[in-house]
């Protein structure tokens, strides 16, 4: 998959939710994870059994103004707002950092203003922050991962799409070093 992504939360207070979210981020191949205005600095979470912070960087920012993302990384807020783009209609940026709100609240207006995009999961009500983050990451991997198209009928594809590399192409003849 091209590009990279990160996942973070603003104002989170429950270590279990954070541990679950970052463990899932590690499983989906996140490049880093972060918190903004978190009530605690999260170190070893009991639910992060993969010990994510041993494998990918963790950035604990005190507030939205302190947050520094890599150059050209696009901030995507996940929030239930009337004007948010629904996830199935959203094209993920190649370089993205997704930020979710706290367990019992929303992204601050300051954070929403910093976001280039606001997306929402089409549900009847709010989801647990770890569940919402997992859905966002799955959708990113599914839509950008180069998987086979879904079949028209129920079940898996008739054959897996496997990329085969062709022979190298040379402008003038095959070099002697490569001749059998």
UniProtKB/TrEMBL annotation:
Keywords: Methyltransferase, Transferase
CDD domains with a match to the protein in the record: SpoU-like
One example GO MF annotation: RNA methyltransferase activity
Domain of life: Bacteria
Keyword presence, Methyltransferase: yes
Gene Ontology BP annotations: methylation; RNA processing
Region (Disordered): 150-180
Keyword Transferase: yes
Pfam families: SpoU_methylase
Sequence intervals crossing the membrane: none
Domain tRNA/rRNA methyltransferase SpoU type: 6-138
UniProt-listed InterPro entries: Alpha/beta_knot_MTases, rRNA_Methyltransferase, SpoU_MeTrfase, tRNA_m1G_MTases_N
PANTHER family on file: OBP33PEP LIKE PROTEIN, RRNA METHYLTRANSFERASE 3
Official protein name in the record: SpoU rRNA Methylase family protein
């Amino acid at each position: 998959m091209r590009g990279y992504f990160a996942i973070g939360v603003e104002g989170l207070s429950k270590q279990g939710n954070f541990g679950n979210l970052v463990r899932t981020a590690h499983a989906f191949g996140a490049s880093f994870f972060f918190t903004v205005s978190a009530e605690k600095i999260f170190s070893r979470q009991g639910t992060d059994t993969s010990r994510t912070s041993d494998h990918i960087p963790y950035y604990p920012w005190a507030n939205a103004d302190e947050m520094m993302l890599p150059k050209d990384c696009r901030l995507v807020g996940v929030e239930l707002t009337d004007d948010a783009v629904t996830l199935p209609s959203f094209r993920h940026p190649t370089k993205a950092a997704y930020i979710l709100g706290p367990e019992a609240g929303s992204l601050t207006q300051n954070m929403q203003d910093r976001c280039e995009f606001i997306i929402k999961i089409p549900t009847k009500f709010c989801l647990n922050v770890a569940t919402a983050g997992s859905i966002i990451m799955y959708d990113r991997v599914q839509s950008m991962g180069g998987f086979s198209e879904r079949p028209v009928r129920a079940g898996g594809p008739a054959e897996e799409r496997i990329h085969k590399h062709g022979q190298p192409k040379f402008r003038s003849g095959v070099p002697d070093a490569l001749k059998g």
